[in-house]
């Protein structure tokens, strides 16, 4: 059996290695357009700042190493330009020599990946970059070092844009991020993104939100970004990272069926519409595990799994891909943000009837030094209690909690069943009631009618009500050092003695720092005949979102305060 693989990295290289483990006699050839057969794609931004010091550390496997270990012929700087499904051949160009030839196959795997989206305003210039390959990151770092660049503008607020913005800042550049939408990282909602915005601003990165780029052009000694409102930003270099699109040119020319966003249509076995042709990785359409809808999810983990599944089926084993749920995590200076499943914006758009749980627990036991706060937002379907997704921002232990919830989604657990998970506990790592357990407890309390919640977006309407009392149950010291406008202060420990100060005919809206003390206060109030509501997420969430709203209003698009 002869297997040709188009594209290396996560999907293609994984498929090749798996085929060899299953079939020692198979002839395997990989054609890779770049100069690297298998590299740490997700590590590329960190080479720019020097966090990854040696460029060789970006290379996971060389062609010689791949052949020595697996007996696989890996040809870099070779581009496949055409596929003929009937003749079962691929047309190849050696990019070093220009030599053209055809290669036959018995089985073909397409793993071309995704390409950066180049908008109409994109201009080809030595000062304007995209970031996809090792060559791209080498070029960016080399240019910064050779020209002593001092400033950069990053257009786009997704994973690549944000990670590169951080690393450009760490490299000593003055950095501005231009984002067309209202918040960065659209896999999370606006309230979660507020923590990301605050972290960037606190680390000296300027943010231009709701800023639509009209023109990008090189100017003398730099680049100029012109926004649709006429404002201009100049910098030494620019990175365009507004998103990626499936690299589908080969598939389209070969007549393969395409799906969402032009991605290659495949079945659960990673088979395309053409016999003996498989496709994996960022270029393929997948089923979203939560919604059941077709989607394009460009992440390394799914690409690895798909490569393995395609290899299994080529070698006669039955293996199926169960879908993607978009589990992801990103480091932003000292902050970690993570998500899995769908967010609230998507849930609304898809018409789900959902409930949300927001809590701000500590990363580990409060009595053990060094605990740090995180904010968890959990979404679940009201009737079925099926977990739809989660977002977490914080410092320590964020990745652990998102992985637990991602696993719970995959296992089909209901939101309130998170309370039953038997999770590892020791004071340096967690609490006896882990934050994930706490999310389950809250979901159970909501479903059992023990708690009614209100949210940040509800507060303006609540303030207009004549029968509303806004109550802050933190200590007098905490209250004096910052509180939500309109909230009066009765500390939790004084509430029973001072409960007569509250009007029983009013609705009581209660807030504390994290949501725990306010929950305890609502239980006291409800059992004394009051109609009480708990603020989801606590003052920590309120303050962050509110400060971001104020900052956004007070700042010009150039990032300078009025």
Characterization of this structure:
By secondary structure, this protein is α/β, with parallel strands linked by helices. The protein has 4 domains: 2-115 and 245-314, FAD/NAD(P)-binding domain, CATH 3.50.50; 128-242, 3-Layer(bba) Sandwich (FAD/NAD(P)-binding domain), CATH 3.50.50.60; 334-447, 3-Layer(bba) Sandwich (FAD/NAD(P)-binding domain), CATH 3.50.50; 453-539, Oxidized Rhodanese, domain 1. Helix content is 29%, strand content 25%. It contains 16 helices and 32 strands. Strands 5-2-1-9-20 form a 5-stranded parallel sheet. Strands 11-18-12-13-14 form a 5-stranded parallel sheet. The protein has a 5-stranded antiparallel sheet with strand order 23-24-27-26-25, sandwiched between helices. It starts with a strand and ends in an 8-residue tail after the last helix. 47% of the residues are buried.
Descriptive key words:
562 residues, alpha/beta, FAD/NAD(P)-binding domain, 4 domains, 5-stranded parallel sheet, 32 strands, disordered C terminus
- For the record, the CATH class of the largest domain is Alpha Beta
- Fraction of residues in β-strands: 25-35%
How would you state the average pLDDT, rounded? 93
> What is the domain total for the residues?
4
CA radius of gyration is 26 Å
């Amino acid at each position: 059996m002869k297997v040709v693989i188009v594209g290396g990295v996560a999907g293609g290289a994984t498929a090749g290695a798996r085929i060899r483990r299953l079939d020692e006699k198979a002839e395997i050839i990989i054609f890779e357009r770049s100069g690297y057969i298998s590299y740490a794609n997700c590590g590329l931004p960190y080479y720019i700042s020097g966090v990854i010091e040696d460029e060789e550390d970006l290379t996971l496997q060389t062609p010689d190493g791949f052949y020595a270990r697996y007996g696989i012929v890996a040809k870099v700087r070779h581009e496949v330009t055409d596929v003929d499904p009937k003749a079962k051949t691929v047309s190849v160009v050696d990019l070093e020599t220009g030599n053209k030839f055809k290669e036959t196959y018995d089985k073909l795997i397409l793993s071309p990946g995704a390409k950066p989206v180049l908008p109409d305003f994109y201009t080809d210039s030595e000062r304007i970059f995209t970031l996809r390959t090792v060559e791209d990151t080498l070029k960016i770092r080399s240019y910064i070092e050779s020209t002593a660049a001092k400033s950069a503008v990053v257009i786009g607020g997704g994973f690549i844009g944000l990670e590169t913005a951080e690393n450009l800042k760490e490299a000593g550049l003055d950095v501005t991020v231009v984002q067309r939408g209202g918040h960065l990282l659209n896999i999370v909602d606006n309230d979660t993104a507020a923590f990301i915005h605050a972290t960037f601003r606190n680390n000296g990165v300027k943010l231009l939100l709701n800023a639509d780029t009209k023109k990008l052009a090189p100017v003398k000694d730099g680049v100029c970004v012109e926004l649709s409102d006429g404002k201009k930003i100049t910098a030494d270099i620019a990175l365009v990272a507004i998103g990626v699109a499936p690299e589908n040119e080969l598939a389209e020319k070969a007549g393969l069926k395409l799906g969402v966003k032009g991605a290659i249509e495949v079945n659960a076995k990673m088979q395309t519409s053409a016999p003996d042709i498989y496709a994996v990785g960022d270029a393929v359409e997948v089923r979203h595990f939560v919604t059941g809808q077709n989607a394009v999810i460009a992440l390394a983990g799914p690409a690895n799994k798909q490569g393995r599944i395609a290899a299994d089926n080529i070698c006669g084993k039955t293996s199926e891909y169960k879908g993607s749920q978009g589990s992801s995590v990103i480091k932003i200076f000292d902050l970690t943000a993570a998500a899995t499943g769908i967010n609230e914006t998507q849930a609304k758009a898809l018409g789900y009837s959902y409930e949300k749980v927001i809590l701000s627990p500590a990363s580990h036991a409060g009595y053990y030094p060094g605990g740090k706060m995180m904010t968890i937002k959990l979404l679940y379907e009201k009737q079925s209690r099926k977990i739809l997704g989660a977002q977490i921002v914080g410092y320590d232990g964020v990745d652990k909690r998102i992985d637990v919830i991602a696993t719970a989604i995959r296992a089909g657990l209901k939101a309130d069943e998170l309370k039953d998970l038997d999770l590892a506990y020791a004071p340096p790592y967690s609490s006896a009631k882990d934050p994930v357990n706490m999310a389950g407890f809250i979901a159970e309390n909501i479903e059992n009618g023990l708690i009614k919640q209100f949210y940040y977006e509800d507060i303006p309407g609540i303030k207009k009500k004549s029968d509303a009392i806004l109550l802050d149950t933190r200590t007098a010291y905490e209250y004096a050092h910052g509180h939500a406008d309109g909230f009066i202060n009765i500390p939790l420990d004084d509430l029973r003695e001072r409960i007569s100060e509250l009007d029983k005919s009013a609705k009581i809206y209660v807030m504390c720092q994290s949501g725990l003390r306010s929950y305890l206060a609502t239980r006291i109030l409800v059992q004394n005949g009051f109609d009480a509501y708990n603020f989801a997420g606590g003052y920590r969430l309120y303050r962050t979102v509110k400060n971001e709203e104020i900052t956004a209003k007070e700042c010009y698009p150039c990032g300078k305060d009025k």
